[in-house]
Amino acid sequence: MKLYQTLPVLCLVAAVARGSLCPEYCDCYPGENNTSTIVTCRGGNITRVPTDFPANTTYLDIEFTNITKLQEGDFRRLPVLTSLRIFWNVQLTKLDVETFSVVPTLTDLSISNCSFSKFPSGMLKGLEHLQTFDGGHNLLEMVRSGLFSHHPTLEMINIWQNNISHLEPGAFAGMPRLKSILLMNNMLTSVSETAFSGSPNIQSLTFSFNTISRIDKDAFVGLNRLQSVDLQQNMLTNIDGVFGELPDLKALTLTNNVNLLDSIHNATFGSLPSLANLFLDKNKISVVEKGVLSHLKSLQQLNLGYNEIVDISLTGLTSLTELYVQDNRLSSFPSNMADAAQLQVLELENNPVEEPLHAGQFSDLTRLRRLTLDNVTSLQSAGTLDPRAFCGLDHLYLLSLRYNQLVSLSPDTFTCVPQLTHLYLDHNNITELKLGTFKALTKLTDLYLSYNQLSRISPGTFDGLVKLFFLALGGNNFTNILHVAPALAGLPCLDIPALDDNALVYVGPNSFPDNMAIDLLNLSGNKIRIIEEGAFTARAFPNMTRVWLDEGNPLHFLPEKIVDGLPKFLTLTVGDDPFNCDCQLKGFATWLRNQVNPPNAYLVCSSPAHLKGKYLKDVALEDMTCNCDHEEAPSIDTSGSDNYTDEGQAAILNCNISGCPEAEFFWTTPTGAMLAVGSGFPRLEVQANGSLVLDDARPEDTGAYSCTAVNYRGKDSKEVFLRVGGG
């Protein structure tokens, strides 16, 4: 049968389902194989449970109504109902104990996001097939014995996000099939020894985000199949003896207990032969006794981060694969590393380690794949790295060395770790990258060098990084694009070079090497005042789709064809840049309107006053004018500039600019640094009148200084030579 022949049949089925067989304010849909019905009743017009449901209803959802009470008979004549969901009925506060007795076929019952302060004991009686119960997000204050206890088929109970402060003795007792209880986000203060008695098959207990300060030592006795206990964010002070004989326990979470024990000793954990994951982070632990965890032969992941631990030994941790000891008070690196030869992840950041990082420091950890050493005291003191420090780590793929005040790196620093794919060197004080520093890292995909003191990177610095995808160079001291862009040549996979938050002032023609793979060029947050025609060409950027120029670049105009000819270009992000919607921007506006598929360029006018706040696309071209009697390219006059000054004295170099419309300008120093108004360069200040003021002159300041001015009609550049005497 063809599709057009089946459509009337399907429409007829839907019409019947939604018609006379479906209650008002409800939707009825065919279930699996069209042999059952799914019903959803919704809306404030419903004030009591509807009647006359299809007899073959298997799933019923009642939500967002004004029902206040559920009572016996509400769900009568639903002989095959298996799932009942009563959701987000905030007026609903009461139910009769016999409400659900008429639907013994239920396997899943949810009464969540309502306003019940209690459920009557016995309300689940007779539901001999019930497997899951969800009473989450109500106002329950306690769990009474008899509500769940001794239920023969329940497997999962979810009563999270209530106000439960008390579990009556035996609250979850006598439930042979119960596997999971979720009690997080309540107000529990204790767990008694009888809470789970007679429910031997419980596998998962979640108590996170309560205020539990005490757990009876026998609370978990007999739960031989318990696999996971989550006690995150409670107020435990002592857990000695609580976790004794639990042969199947695999995961124990004790994260962020406000007043937890201050040490881990022999009595802390008993026989836990299956424990694989132990989370003790964000507590106040200061002492971990040597070998205290060595009996946990299955332990693979140990998180001790954010404590006050002074030293740690890896004695006996033969199965450990992940160790997190970040944000502690370690004075030395972990000892007895040879015992943890299986370790793959080691996080040690933010520790006052005074032990020097010596050659082969981690060589016993031959399987190590991730190592973080951010903000480590001994590295900060050294200012550099032993070039053999990481030897022996043949499988290391991630190395983080952030916030270490590193000033320099030997070209051999990473020779021993050729498998690296991610290298984090950001937030240091690196001033120079020597050629060959990264030559061994042919598998590197992500390199973070942001927030250092780099002002120049030599071409060839990144040679051989054939897989490099992301390169972070933001927050450095680049002022001249030609001091960094040539180094990006020959990187066939480089997709995103981040040059944001530097001090670039000018992007001129042919600034970038040919045939780059770049998709996104991030120049946000610089001090760019001028971008010339030819800065972004198809020859350099055949694959580029996006350029970011927002977040503070003081651009007032753009060249007419700034992205013309880029075959894949989609978006020019200019955000809050202070554009003048005048004659200098008219060419770009015209170009945009002439494109069949123009790129996204949501440019907002900052001036003139009558256009402020308007999108460029909404400005009439005839309104984009300049107040010029005669438009002309800028012309520069440097007369009156100082040509000589003594060491320690000041010098003023003039740059008087004529021409209309008003030009943007910048200075270039003898070292190639480019400066504009607000550049914030040491001892050099560009003033609004065009002058460059040099303070505390030094002999190395001798040389040619060039002033360049650009408007949309053209540009001019003049040099001034300054000599600084020896004093």
UniProtKB/TrEMBL annotation:
GO terms for cellular component: plasma membrane. GO terms for biological process: immune response; toll-like receptor signaling pathway. SUPFAM superfamilies: Immunoglobulin (SSF48726), L domain-like (SSF52058). The keyword Signal applies. It is a single-pass membrane protein. InterPro entries: Cys-rich_flank_reg_C, Ig-like_dom, Ig-like_dom_sf, Ig-like_fold, Ig_I-set, Ig_sub, Ig_sub2, Leu-rich_rpt. Residues 634-723 form the Ig-like domain. Keywords: Disulfide bond, Glycoprotein, Immunoglobulin domain, Leucine-rich repeat, Membrane, Repeat, Signal, Transmembrane, Transmembrane helix. It is found in: Membrane. Pfam families: I-set (PF07679), LRR_8 (PF13855). This is Carboxypeptidase N subunit 2-like. The gene is LOC109466810.
